[in-house]
Write a structure and sequence with these properties.
- By secondary structure, the chain is of the alpha/beta class.
- The chain has a single domain, classed as NADP-dependent oxidoreductase domain (TIM Barrel), CATH 3.20.20.100.
- Helix content is 38%, strand content 14%.
- The longest helix is centred in the middle third of the chain and has 16 residues, at 124-139.
- The protein binds adenosine-2'-5'-diphosphate (A2P).
- Adenosine-2'-5'-diphosphate is lined by residues 22, 198-203, 206, 221, 223, 239-243, 246, 249-250.
């Protein structure tokens, strides 16, 4: 089955299409609407947005206008990183629900363990409070799965200490040279799906000669090798583009990297450090 619609299965049995279309940094309005429509036209069936991206209304409208049946599209959104109270989480979810207007959300994530202006600060109690609301939303069927984003092992352990549902997914920054081995292994052991955002290092990998040389052997671009690499590692890639030809290119990754080429890619240093 093509990678685009082949699915990963989360610990609760929910299927999630193997490549998600990332909408980070795509402005609300025509840009987000057109990009989401282009992704759905190209065959993507998984769209990733967030309250913080400010583009949920356009993403939702694109999904509704696309003609693709709602139950064939997997929609993820996120509770803002700054929200660390139960009331705040309930309000944020209701806002996302209203703006997307596509019925139940498929996956709802805590965007980060800490507010973006205080990376690394301690919000263990707040994350537990927020997660308990997530558990309520999940039990009520308003979201079909729940997870986290940007959580490391300590963050995941702190959450597990006082909550019932193990996150179904952890969405982290993941690309060649930045493979987050410790967090990835921890998630693997607990059946937490790892989703990788910025699989092209937000463009940082695109000029990499070693990746280009590997791609040439398969007739594939650097972007396609970089995205395929995540799939080879059982990490769900979330590439982002606003260019229709690139949106399609990033989904055309039905090839298999050889063990030797994967080993070469494993050895590449973080080019984005
Ligand atoms: P654009 O949106 O102008 O097409 P990441 O997914 O790692 O966040 O990377 C996104 C960045 O990479 C964006 O700047 C995007 O540009 C660019 N990009 C996405 N896909 C491709 C591609 N296939 N070839 C070249 N650049 C790409």
């Amino acid at each position: 089955m093509p990678a685009l619609i082949d699915t990963f299965t989360m610990s609760n049995g929910l299927h999630i299409p193997g490549i998600g279309f990332g909408t980070w940094q795509i402005p609300d309005g025509a840009a987000a609407y057109d990009a989401t429509r282009a992704a759905l036209d190209a065959g993507y069936r998984h769209i990733d947005t967030a309250r913080a991206y400010g583009n949920e209304a356009s993403v939702g409208r694109a999904i509704k206008d696309s003609g693709v049946p709602r139950d064939e599209v997997f929609v993820t959104t996120k509770c803002p990183a700054e929200v660390k109270t139960a009331d705040g989480a309930r309000h944020a979810f209701a806002e996302s629900e209203r703006l997307l207007d596509v019925g139940p959300i498929d996956l709802y994530l805590i965007h980060a363990p800490w507010p973006w202006n205080a990376i690394g600060s301690d919000h263990r109690a707040g994350n537990i409070e927020v997660w308990k609301v997530f558990e309520e939303l999940y039990d009520a069927g308003r979201t079909r799965s729940i997870g986290v984003s940007n959580f490391d092992v300590d963050d995941l352990e702190s959450l597990a200490a006082d909550t019932d549902v193990v996150p179904h997914a952890n969405q982290i920054r993941w690309f060649i040279g930045n493979t987050q081995d410790e967090t990835t292994a921890y998630c693997r052991e607990r059946d937490i799906l790892v989703e990788g955002y910025s699989p092209l290092a937000t463009g940082g990998l695109l000029e990499n000669e070693a990746i280009r040389a590997i791609g040439e052997r398969y007739g594939k671009s650097v972007a396609q090798v970089a995205i395929r690499y995540l799939l080879e590692k059982d990490v769900l890639p979330l590439p982002k583009s606003t260019t229709p030809s690139r949106i399609a290119e990033n989904a055309d990754v039905d090839f298999t990297l050889s063990a030797e080429d994967i080993a070469t890619l494993d050895a590449l240093e973080d080019t984005d450090a």
